[in-house]
Amino acid sequence: MSNPKTVPCQYRTGRTLGSGTYAVVKEAVQITTGQYYACKVINKKLMEGREHMVRNEIAVLKKVSQGHRNIVTLHDYFETAHNLYLIFDLCSGGELFDRICAKGNYYEQDAADLLRTIMEAVQYIHECGIVHRDLKPENLIFRSKAEDADIMIADFGLSRVMDDKTLTMLTEVCGTPGYMAPEIFKKTGHGKPVDVWAMGVITYFLLCGYTPFDRDTQQQEMEAIIRGDYKFEPAEYWNPVSENARDFVRSCLTIDPRKRPTAADALKHPWLAETKKQGVSDPTTATGQADLLPTFQKAFNAKKTFRKAVLGVMASRRMATTFGANKDKAAALPFDLDALKKNAESEQIDEKRTVTYAHIDDPSSPRNPIDELKSKPLTSPGRAPAS
């Protein structure tokens, strides 16, 4: 294998677009083409002992990138002395939450159309031998602000390549609590069915504006998930929703993963498969179907402030899980995470900076990033001049 080469950087980073669990996302422009991308910036110190997370994310995305229009594509990977950089499609259309709330109206058929598109992408991921493990509305983003923009599945940081021939089952506890399947909490082994469960939770949310296992504490939420304890209530939120939609939710939220439908099975359910308009009739609306937006916004706004606080806690807990048995580092995480992410965010790259670089799709590249990640720790310093 050729030695890694240090080359001039082909990108210039700009404004910060957002922050994930262990990375910040910045805008980046490809210097020679002027093409804009999203750049995931990861502090190497934050990944010490967890290099497998980035290695795994690249491995997953190499299997699914450019294979489906509703999956965010990984274009490049490179590193500097301090940070790792992953270059993705720039999706500027916003999150699913905001998109729905910005609409003038929102019907059950809209939800069914969205869910069908997402489930088709999930089916594709599963056919590629991938389980996502962190499907949730925050990871469903739109490619652009156009009304007909594609919805995209993003954030494959917790995904795994699964070999069906060996029937390998995953056992670590990971994901976002409210969307995690019972078998994850039970530690009985899990696989692709956890994504179908998460799709059931997402569907429930898209129909009423809150999640089915919402409880006062995370412990109560976990116990409710294990029992499959949820209801279609209060009535004011569910009266406008059809029995067909409720049956689809029930099928996805089957406690036993062996009896849960596959993504392919879910696409055959009448709620997704039928082309006729879904929903409860309401002659007062332009479509003749009940408008879900008033109750959706009411429920969503009531949880908005609470959700922001909870997401911060969940992010810390999710990262803490990756520390494994190193309890000292796990305990220190809440104090270090923000500082390390700010350090990653502060580094600017442009054509004056040299980086250790590989193009994911170029077979003539001096190295394959997957092989390189296996051959040396990600925390080893590259050569990059000072800014």
Automatic annotation (TrEMBL):
Residue intervals passing through the bilayer: none
SUPFAM superfamilies per record: Protein kinase-like (PK-like)
Sequence ranges assigned to domain Protein kinase in this UniProt record: 11-272
Binding positions (ATP): 40
Record-level Gene Ontology MF annotations: ATP binding; protein serine/threonine kinase activity
Keywords: ATP-binding, Kinase, Nucleotide-binding, Serine/threonine-protein kinase, Transferase
Pfam families xrefs: Pkinase
Region (Disordered), start-end ranges: 345-387
SMART domains linked to this entry: S_TKc
Top-rank lineage group of the source organism: Eukaryota
Database matches in InterPro entries: Kinase-like_dom_sf, Prot_kinase_dom, Protein_kinase_ATP_BS, Ser/Thr_kinase_AS
Biased composition (Basic and acidic residues): 345-375
Gene3D superfamilies linked to this entry: Phosphorylase Kinase, domain 1, Transferase(Phosphotransferase) domain 1
Protein family per UniProt: Belongs to the protein kinase superfamily.
Protein name in the entry: Protein kinase domain-containing protein
Species annotation: Tulasnella calospora MUT 4182
Classification of source organism: Eukaryota, Fungi, Dikarya, Basidiomycota, Agaricomycotina
